[in-house]
Design goal:
heterodimer; A: 487 residues; mainly alpha; 20 helices; 73% helix; B: 357 residues; alpha/beta; Rossmann fold; 2 domains; two-stranded antiparallel sheet; 12 helices; 36% helix; 11% strand
Chain lengths: 487, 357
């Protein structure tokens, strides 16, 4: 079930919301848990068991870790009383807690690996060593990358004792399975929403309004921008590298860049909107990434919650940048390789991670700071780099990717025929207005305008219109513009 | 006004958008319920696509259309072809099937759905193609169970109209008009027939082809009727059927197809109209979808091929140039399973060049 789909908007959400509001704030988390499980079961019925098992195992381990800390504290107190002197409180977590944490990490990453990467690993080893064992074609459980990361965040925070107060099993289950963010983030920390889950939050009218505005805006981004510009990329992709010239290749890459941004941004806005309507404040995931001047700042503004996760739970524990230059580069390599692999199982994602690592390292060591202070050059630099990085991300097949890059660089392919009436002219005639609109929405201005006039009645009417027009578009395209229409 | 009331009013005023959205959604839901209950809902009811009912109906069941008789009359008037109104073996499977009475419809169908040889054995002759200058012939297709309840497997496959075709050069297409969806768009860019007119739009369907703005070379700034009225063509190639594949029954599609052929004919009385077959999809695509599969495509092809009379309306099946041994579109010539990649359009083009009228 997708948030922009009719089933969610007209069936699931109204029923859920009504139940949620009727129930006393104190017990709302139970409604949320049941709703989330139902949401998950509707989307990925076979894997709901896996989710519940993961939640149970992790909660068990987390409570073990907590107990170890409590016992340690007691022992320390007793020791202190015995010796009757001030012993320094040890900051180091107990060893037993570490072992439990490692156990949890092995389980979580293990499950993630089996469902997400096993096929890829088997196929890769088969193609290299001819083992004869190929992938078994496991379907990917819905949102596994997101909920695994969210659970791991909780586990590490528990280990670091960053979570205050008691967390019951149901509270943890709500945090791990919450339907507004299970499919595509934002990856929240327990500290951010834990209090709301535990104490319940009377939803104010301000929250409702904020939530619905965010949702309407999000559905607009997803249905009216992302899905529309997707057909431009589709148009380029399906004719293949042999049918396009340099300009079309770049146009295709730009359109894909815009599509992925609007799609993800739209989803996040809808998720945070749903969050607001339930009384939660979910963290921001995007802050105008496409107006960045360097890749470094791009990744500070793109999928912020994922970047934050890698920073806090991987980069800093590895030593971050407070170490030798060589070590720092190694840390960055690990982080960006992991970021690449997290996005998907495929050579292209590894390559994409390496590409980002290379660019970010070069920026950090050389021109990054200078570029940040330029006015125009930084933007031009990013206008070139962003589509390159998303093209690597996008095209899984290495041959097709290299063909596409050859066309982007203007290198003719073998046996290529040049046609008089180019694809580029055709696309520009068809999509020029959409391209202009999309470019405008890549700049910070639409959001600035929105923030400034959000209380204005005209904006509200506009959002209502956007909502219904998006619903209409979803209805006539059978939820999926790629498959049902726009050929 | 009591304090409580005031407070409530105040809080309502604070979230107007939420209230509006909630109210309109509730209205839509109620209307959806009512409209589905009274059962007079169709996709073609006053609104083109009633969102209201869409939100409650998982299935898009087209109900019988009241203006059906009028439409047939229009078609008869414009195309005095015996093939159109009279049911043929291939039109039969596409016949209107209502949910309530599937059995009644199926009985006669199964009698008529036979191969040519069997048909001849039963009835002596096949009425509509013998010695008529090349109307459509049918060969046997598989007898798979339909994978979607909106489709029936006709069991036969139409083949290209018989005619003494000649080899032609690109300039042959100078007086040709191509109307269709994105596949015609691809042909326009990659055929090299620079003198032909291509009139298309991504996602264009038989249901909206006359109203939609379409691309005739310079963006979406014209319509099919405008193009048809602008000049007289000798040959008009029409290709539709893939965007409609998830919408309505084959009979709706075929009917609308005939209606639009009639409209084209009124603008272009002397042109030869060529119905292009829908190209098959790749095996991967075929197996992955209950909708986008070759059985359903063949059902559509069989239904529209029946309009060909071999005199001024022809049916072209260029699939033999594009498929593998099993009858699927060759994997290497398509990325999405439906459209041909640029460098393989020549297969289609070469086939067409061998079929000059």
């Amino acid at each position: 079930m997708v948030y922009s789909g009719l089933a969610f908007i007209f069936h699931f959400f109204p029923i859920f919301l009504l139940t949620y509001y009727i129930v006393k704030p104190k017990y709302r988390y139970i409604v949320l848990l049941l709703g989330s499980l139902a949401f998950y079961a509707l989307g990925s019925p076979i894997y709901i068991g896996l989710l519940i098992i993961s939640v149970a195992i992790n909660y068990f381990i987390a409570s073990r870790i907590n107990r170890i800390y409590r016992e340690n504290e007691k022992a320390e107190k007793a020791e202190k009383a015995e010796k009757n002197e001030k012993t320094e409180k040890t900051d180091k977590p107990p060893k037993a807690a570490k072992i439990w944490l490692i156990g949890a990490l092995i389980y979580d990453f293990g499950v993630l690996c089996i469902f997400k990467y096993l096929d890829f690993i088997l196929n890769a080893t088969d193609s290299i060593f001819h083992t004869g064992v190929t992938g078994i074609g496991l379907a990917l459980p819905l949102g596994i990358s997101f909920y695994t990361f969210q659970i791991i965040s909780f586990m590490i925070d528990t280990y670091r004792q960053n979570i205050t107060g008691k967390v019951s099993f149901l509270h943890f289950a709500v945090y791990a399975t919450m339907f507004p963010q299970i499919t595509s983030g934002p990856i929240t920390r327990f500290g951010e929403i834990g209090d709301t889950i535990r104490e319940g939050w009377g939803v104010s009218t301000r929250c409702l309004e904020r939530g619905i505005m965010s949702f309407c805006l999000g559905i607009g981004y997803k249905v009216l921008l992302a899905d529309k510009i997707a057909s431009l990329w589709n148009d380029v992709w399906r004719v293949g590298a042999y049918g396009i010239d340099v300009a079309t290749a770049w146009l295709g890459a730009w359109s894909y860049s815009m599509q992925i941004y609007f799609d993800f941004l739209g989803y996040t806005l809808m998720a945070t909107g749903v969050g607001w309507m339930l009384g939660f404040e979910l963290p921001d995931n995007f802050t105008e990434p496409y107006s960045s001047k360097t890749m470094t700042s791009f990744w500070r503004n793109w999928h912020i919650t994922l970047g934050r996760w890698f920073r806090d739970y991987l980069y800093i524990p590895l030593g971050g940048n407070r170490c030798s230059k060589g070590r720092m580069i190694l840390n960055m390599l690990v982080v960006w390789l992991c970021t690449g692999i997290w996005h998907g199982a495929g050579y292209n994602f590894i390559l994409w991670g390496l590409f980002l690592f290379a660019i970010l390292t070069i920026e950090k060591l050389t021109y990054g700071k200078w570029m940040e202070n330029t006015r125009v050059i930084g933007h031009i630099y990013m206008i070139i780099l962003i589509p390159i990085s998303w093209t690597i991300f996008n095209i899984a097949d290495m041959t097709q990717m290299s063909e596409y890059f050859m066309r982007m660089l203007g290198i003719p392919l073998e046996g290529m025929v040049v046609f008089g009436f180019t694809k580029f002219t055709e696309l520009m005639y068809t999509y020029w207005w959409l391209i202009l609109v999309c470019i405008f929405f890549c700049t910070p201005y639409p959001m600035k305008l929105f923030r400034r006039f959000r209380r204005n009645i005209v904006v509200k009417i506009l959002l209502l219109a956007i909502f219904w027009y998006s619903v209409y578009q979803s209805a006539i395209s059978g939820d999926n513009p790629f498959i049902y229409f726009n050929f | 006004m009591s304090n409580r009331k005031k407070k409530r009013n105040n809080s309502i005023n604070k979230c107007p958008l939420f209230i509006w959205v909630a109210l309109t959604v509730i209205c839509a839901l109620i209307m959806g319920v009512v409209m589905t209950q009274v059962e007079d809902y169709t996709w073609k009811l006053t609104w083109d696509h009633p969102v209201f009912a869409a939100v409650l109906l998982d299935e898009r069941d087209p109900a019988p259309k009241p203006e059906e008789e009028e439409r047939v009359a229009v078609i008869e008037e414009a195309i005095p072809s015996p093939v159109v109104p009279t049911p043929t073996p291939t039109e039969e499977p596409a016949a209107e099937v209502t949910e309530e009475e599937p059995e009644e419809e199926q009985e006669p169908e199964e009698e008529k759905l036979v191969s040519d040889e069997e048909y001849m054995e039963l009835y002596g002759e096949i009425p509509f193609y013998i010695d008529d200058g090349g109307a459509v012939k049918y060969v046997t297709w598989n007898d798979n169970e339909p994978r979607s309840k909106y489709y029936e497997n006709p069991g036969v496959r139409p083949i290209t109209s018989e005619y003494p075709y000649q080899h032609v050069e690109p300039d042959y297409y100078a007086d040709a008009l191509f109307i269709g969806d994105s596949r015609i768009g691809g042909l326009g860019v990659y055929s090299g027939w620079s003198e032909a007119t291509f009139c298309y739009k991504n996602g264009l369907s038989i249901y909206n082809m006359m109203e939609s703005t379409v691309n005739a070379g310079y963006g979406l700034n014209t319509t099919v009727p405008e193009v048809l009225a602008a000049r007289q063509y000798n040959k008009i190639y029409v290709m539709f059927g893939i965007n409609e594949i998830g919408t309505g029954y084959t009979s709706d599609f075929a009917e609308k197809f005939g209606e639009n052929l009639a409209i084209i004919r009124t603008y272009q009385p002397d042109a030869k109209i060529i119905i292009l077959a829908n190209t098959y999809v790749t095996k991967e695509k075929d197996l992955s979808s209950p909708i986008y599969n070759n059985d359903n495509i063949n059902a559509k092809n069989a239904a529209i091929a029946a309009y060909a009379n071999g005199e001024d309306i022809f049916y072209f099946d260029m699939n033999p140039a594009l498929v593998d041994d099993e009858g699927y579109m060759r994997e290497e010539i398509s990325r999405d399973g439906i459209h041909i990649t640029a460098q393989y359009y020549y297969l289609w083009v070469d086939w067409m060049n061998e079929h000059g009228l």
